Amino acid sequence: MVVDDDALVRRTLVHVLKAQGLDVVEASNGREALALLEESGELPLIVSDLYMPEMDGITFLREVHRRWPDIAVIMLTGVAEVSTAVECLQVGASDYLAKPVMVDEVRARVDNALERRRLTLENRFLQQSYQERLEASIRELDQRNKEQFVGQIQMAVRMLEKKDVYTRGHSQRVSRYAVKTAVLLGFSGETLDQIRLGGELHDIGKIGTRDAVLQKPGPLTASEFEEMKKHVTEGEEILEPLRRHHPLVLQIVRNHHERVDGSGFPDGLRGEAIPMVARVVSVVDAFDAMTTNRSYSAPRPAGEAMDELRRFIGIQFDPEVVTAFSKAFPDVQKLPITV
Ligand SMILES: [Fe+2]
User: What is the pTM of this model?
Assistant: First the structure.
């Protein structure tokens, strides 16, 4: 685009630019030029005079630079106006031409300004696509890490299930019960993920419990019970590497045998001092233990187990959790769930 109130200069410039193979539009002042730009949108280059009626060149340049920063602007100045030329460059002009204009010089400056603009745009494009590629590979790496992590967790759970036939499916059921209950309690997102994981891993410490204790058909002696109790702290030790990113998983593992009356283990925590996520797993863990086959007892009907949970509200279980659990699984006929 050529902007100049002097028709002769304008005609000359248009002629030169056309000879360079460019499509040219012309305007006789800044206001007219802005109107044209608004209509046609972005274009690569403007050659504009500095002194024009209606809107002077500097105001016009400022406006163009603000709204279309990628347009290269060459300003036309008088011979002796070095300071004005500098001001133009500061405001964002690509270059300036001193009047009277020489055809060769116009050609060279225009070529130059267009080339610089092209390089700037190309560079920006390359940088953007580099940034995008980088982000994509980080996402992929993240995903792979996550998959690997889940794989390792599942391996640990399978190890425990090989050792203790009674826990087979128990971890998954507890996890599913816990997540659905937690949703009704208002948990979501990342917390829910940790509850899911904590449900799967809550008994992982039993890997260290002797088979004679784990699979004993009758009630445990006092010392055997002490040994069984260790699975919560040993589980926490096993999962220590998860503490930074999954602290709730460790709370579940450590505190899922606490009782709201403070008589549980390992910390004897009472009521709300027991982490909520552990209170959730405590309820659903007890329910699953009652309704599935155990070394020490035959399965009981789900309805009966649900009543038992209610009976121990305020003693062993949190009332809100028991309510949420029974709401999450209203149809006891369909319990226990199959995994
Ligand atoms: Fe347990």
Answer: 0.63
